[in-house]
Amino acid sequence: MSISAGNHTFGPESGRLLVNTTRTGLGAKAGHDLTIEVTRWRGDATVDTAYPAGSSVALEADADSLEVRKGTGGVKPLTTSDHAEIEKTIREKILHVRKYPTIMFRSTRVEGTAESFRVEGDLTIVGVTQPVSVQCSVSEGRVRGSATIVQTRWGIRPYSALLGALKLSDEVEVQFDVGLVPKQ
Question: Measured between alpha carbons, how far is 46 from 48 in angstroms, rounded to an integer?
Answer without folding.
Answer: 7
